[in-house]
Amino acid sequence: MLEKIEYDRFYHIYNRGINGEQLFRGEDDYSRFLKAYNKYISLIADTYAWVLLGNHFHLLVRIKSEHEIAPFPPKQNDITVKKPKPSNQFSHLFNAYAQYFNKKFSRTGSLFEHPFRRIRVDEQRYFERLVLYIHHNPVKHGFVTHPLDYSWSSYLSSLSDKATKIQRDYVLIKFGGKDALERQQNDFASKDGDEVFEIES
Q1: Counting Cβ atoms within 10 Å, is residue 136 exposed (0-12), middle (13-18) or buried (19+)?
Q2: Among positive and negative, which fits the CA dihedral 136, 97, 21, 5?
């Protein structure tokens, strides 16, 4: 049974291409997904970790509380206050990206598996291991030999001093700083971290 998307809750959200379909065939596709993600999801959620990988992706987000979500700009002659709904915003993201992808590659039909998968993150230990797992995914799937070598994840931003849209300060506080995060990330693959997250098959 799928978790209900609720306000002010942390979630591990993940999905993959239908029937193993590639979601990202080139750098333009990764960039387009992130642009759409910022457009639709930043309105309703804070992001703590993410990774995009060929035929799937993982996100660690907190759905904002209802009062944190700003209403849509009012339409002409419409005084009704409407706010974006989290589940709708994810649907808008996937639909917008699928339309782009289908047009670009002359394909039709669904691109993502439905419904998208989600697991509520209630424990601090799970949050921390999930951050490590998400950043380790490119190594797990053979894209690179170290997370630092992969561009399409939040790991580089987590260790950088440059401006970022991820909740870097929160993550670093939970791990005890950049050095501690990097040390635990390096240790993650040598331990049994993956066993808790065998959820993609």
Answers
A1: buried
A2: positive
State yes or no: cis peptide before 74, omega within 30 of 0: no
102 exposure class (CB count in 10 Å sphere: 0-12, 13-18, 19+): middle
Q: Across-strand partners of 57?
A: 15, 52
Topology given in CATH for the domain delimited by 9-191: Alpha-Beta Plaits (3.30.70)
* Continuous segment of H or E residues that includes residue 99: helix 86-105
pTM for the whole structure: 0.91
Average pLDDT over residues 150-165: 96
Report domain extents, the chain. 9-191
What is the SS3 assignment for 9?
A: strand
CA 57 to chain centre: 7
